[in-house]
Recover the amino acids of this structure.
């Protein structure tokens, strides 16, 4: 059934799909689309985290549809590149059970899932499937239980979210009149509170200070990297391009530099690192 209104789809989890201040691209269902022959052509999801962290979610393609009855079927046609990690992310109203199926160009089924909204899970639930060959694929939505209802989905890339994690070092970095550089390395590889495949795009290098130093610099890098990333003076923020793929779950090194003029007042900083990261919403 063709929608006569549009849901506001904004990134990060809201009742319709995701929430944030900038709306995703909405694709409304268009009837007739009840067979593979008249399947509605849609765009694949290609959510770009590099754009997303700057507030641009145009690459997130959300299909908004409705089954008008228990016997209604909705078909969609989409081009998908070959990728063993392709995602169908589904949201729907509470109550009905929807059947989502994906077929290849010859109508051979490659994916099937009965979806029922879990009230305890807010947002779109992701399912992974394998696209072995690039080409045209079909998404079919039908009803298993109930008289139809509203649904929404993306198919293609995963959707992304952002979050942050704060790490406080156990010991301070200390500068004296004879030591003007101090370094520390911290192992974040086993932090369970941060989702897998999280990529850092910004680090704030703060902390608790005792005394002070002049000409202060604070830097950060992956321990395995050779080059340091400078933070801005006073704000101590380093922006990291998303394309550099700095994995959160790594060993991270920090460096403190400065000049101490009073031998009785060494400067110490106990690092407090705030990692801002994006991550794919995957099973």
């Amino acid at each position: 059934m063709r929608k006569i209104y549009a849901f506001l789809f904004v990134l990060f989890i809201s009742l319709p799909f995701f929430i944030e201040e900038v709306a995703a691209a909405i694709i409304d269902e268009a009837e007739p689309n009840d067979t593979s022959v008249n399947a509605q052509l849609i765009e694949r999801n290609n959510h770009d985290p590099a754009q997303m962290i700057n507030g641009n979610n145009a690459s997130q393609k959300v299909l908004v549809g409705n089954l008008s009855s228990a016997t209604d079927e909705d078909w969609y046609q989409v081009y998908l590149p070959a990728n063993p990690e392709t995602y169908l992310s589904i949201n729907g109203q509470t109550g009905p059970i929807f059947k989502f199926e994906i077929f290849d160009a010859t109508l051979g089924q490659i994916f099937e899932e009965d979806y029922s909204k879990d009230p305890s899970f807010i947002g779109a639930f992701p399912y992974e499937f394998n696209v072995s060959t690039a080409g045209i694929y079909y998404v079919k939505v039908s009803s298993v239980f109930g008289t139809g209802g509203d649904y929404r989905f993306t198919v293609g890339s995963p959707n992304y979210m952002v979050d942050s994690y704060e790490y406080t070092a156990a010991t301070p970095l200390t500068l004296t009149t004879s030591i003007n550089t101090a370094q520390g390395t911290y192992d974040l590889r086993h932090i369970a509170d941060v989702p897998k495949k999280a990529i850092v795009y910004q680090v704030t290098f703060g902390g608790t200070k005792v005394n002070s130093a002049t000409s202060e610099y604070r830097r950060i890098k992956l321990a395995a990297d050779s080059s340091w990333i400078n933070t801005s003076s006073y704000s101590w923020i380093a922006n990291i391009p998303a394309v550099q793929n700095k994995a959160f779950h790594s060993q991270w090194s920090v460096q403190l530099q400065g000049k101490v003029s009073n031998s009785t007042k060494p400067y110490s900083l106990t690092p407090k690192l705030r990692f801002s990261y994006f991550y794919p919403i995957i099973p």
User: Anything to note?
Assistant: Confidence is low (pLDDT under 50) at residues 1-21.
